[in-house]
Amino acid sequence: MNHQEIIDTTVAFVKQELQDAEGGHDWWHIERVWHTARSIAAKEKADMLIVELGALLHDIADSKFHDGDENIGPAKATAFMQSIRLPDEVIAHIVNIIRHISFKGGNNEKVFHSPELAVVQDADRLDAIGAIGIARAFNYGGFKNRAIYDPAIQPNLQMTREEYKKNTAPTINHFYEKLLLLKDRMNTATGKEMAEERHTYMEGFLGQFYKEINI
Ligand code: ADP
Ligand code: NI
Fold it and tell me: 3-213 has which CATH code?
């Protein structure tokens, strides 16, 4: 298979796998991350096939939606890539990207680095901030039936996970817990630059949000 055939086959597989996914982790998230990753990779030194496959396959079975099982995604991706006879070293690299892309509050040991992971991770993080990031956060909160905000639980940057129960934390807290931190965690110069505008937009949103509810 040539590059285009590999990508077309992978797109079809991913669309199929994500048919019933929650709106923030559906095919359209993958498509955005894929396109963003491609444009970052065009400006950075990275292997385009690895970047594209990594972006397309990074969320096919998010552990959040599979009882915390972090092996389902890598296993499904491996079976698919073997079925289209990709070389073992490509498969191993993509599995590493899938396993290491997630932001886990900074406490997971980073044991794998590659320019391609850096690009795909930046693209995934960019999709978690800005207007799309705001939409995804509230969609995820709705999916989990969480409050939009709760004045009894004041969000701030110093707040730790122990300070509120994870499952009842209002969605607005997620901005302080994660989304506002992403700008400074971008890997590539291109990603950093793209994050600025989206970050400023989120700060504007939060300012307006509190203005409207007077807190
Ligand atoms: P990634 O898939 O990039 O590792 P996550 O799966 O944690 O990151 O998040 C994916 C999307 O779901 C993001 O847009 C994120 O903001 C949203 N999300 C994750 N956890 C929460 C939460 N507790 N509240 C609101 N949104 C969340
Ligand atoms: Ni993602």
Answer: 1.10.3210.50
